[in-house]
Automatic annotation (TrEMBL):
Membrane topology, as annotated: Multi-pass membrane protein
Entry annotated with the keyword ATP-binding: no
Organism: Hymenolepis diminuta (Rat tapeworm)
GO cellular component terms, A-Z: membrane
SUPFAM superfamilies found in the cross-reference section: Periplasmic binding protein-like II
Record's protein name: Ionotropic glutamate receptor C-terminal domain-containing protein
Pfam families: Lig_chan
Keywords: Glycoprotein, Ion channel, Ion transport, Ligand-gated ion channel, Membrane, Receptor, Signal, Transmembrane, Transmembrane helix, Transport
Length: 292
């Protein structure tokens, strides 16, 4: 914004100087010089446009600068909207169910799919119905296939929480709270009497701390295999956000280097105006007619 302000002052000041050299019939102060092109376009101001080449080129430079500024603003606003969408969509089961940006699914034949098919929780069961009506062709056959879809973007994988946390950290992905907090599930293909025995064993393992030890052991093993670096700088987060086209925004934004390049281009335009001004001066274009 500092570069934009400096460029505006330079362009406006140059235009004011040009019209001070040759005022014509219209008074062009610095304020009028700055607002001339805007007023002419948006407010229908009927005033005499500059007639000299240097002034005309200066107007062209100003318009190109404004056009680049509008493009830069729109691109950065799109990046901002995408970043906000990443932070806020979805952050719960309800928002996942009622949004249209992400496709989602469980792994085919997984414990998660079996539990979601049981109508114990209305929201979870609604997710299961949506998956099997709208996204049934996208149900991954393996965890690796599901993670690949997540990395590509516009897809959320519903998986068991230990795997979910591990893969989220491994691939620098977002993870949400588990569907069932602290659940450790054994999947039985048939309802056999052994289910009750296993259920009692799990309760015993939970009460005596065995499950906590299993969780801690598995967590230590998984964490030890994670990469030592995950993008955490603002630039890394911005680039990561742009790789996930939630709402089909452009994946291009304008950084400081690009803004500085725009500033340099504007200065080159002003240099061309100065050269034309010197040529006009050498040709005595600004010399007043002594016969008037």
């Amino acid at each position: 914004w500092i570069l934009i302000f400096v460029t505006a002052v330079l362009v406006g000041g140059s235009l004011a100087v040009l019209h001070k050299i040759n005022p014509g019939n219209t008074s062009y102060t610095l304020h009028l010089s700055m607002l001339f092109v805007f007023g002419y376009l948006f407010q229908g101001v009927r005033t005499r446009p500059p007639t000299y080449a240097s002034s005309q080129i200066l107007i062209v430079v100003w318009w190109l600068f404004c056009l680049i500024l509008v493009i830069a603003f729109c691109a950065n606003y799109a990046a901002y909207r995408s970043s906000i969408a990443l932070e806020n969509l979805p952050n719960s089961l309800v928002t996942l169910l009622h949004q249209n940006y992400y496709k989602y699914s469980y792994i085919r034949g997984s414990n998660m799919g079996h539990l979601m098919s049981t109508p114990l929780d209305s929201v979870i069961y609604s997710l299961y119905q949506v998956i099997n009506t709208r996204f049934k062709d996208m149900i991954p056959n393996s965890r690796e296939e599901g993670i690949d879809e997540v990395i590509k973007g516009e897809f959320a994988l519903l998986d068991e929480s230990p795997f979910n946390d591990y893969n989220a950290k491994k691939y620098c992905l977002e993870s949400s709270p588990s569907l069932w907090f602290g659940a450790y599930v054994f999947f039985m293909p048939k309802q056999l009497p052994y289910g009750a025995i296993i259920d009692e064993e799990i309760k015993t393992m939970g009460s005596d701390g065995t499950l906590d030890k299993i969780y801690k052991s598995e967590e230590n093993i998984m964490i030890s295999t994670l990469p030592t670096y995950c993008g955490a700088t603002f630039k890394d987060q911005a680039l990561e956000a742009m790789r996930i086209p939630l709402i089909n925004w452009s994946d291009y934004s304008v950084e400081f280097s690009a803004a500085f390049g725009i500033f340099i281009v504007s200065l080159l335009g002003l240099l061309i105006v100065l050269i034309i001004l010197l040529v006009e001066y050498r040709l005595d274009i600004y010399k007043k007619d002594t016969n008037e």
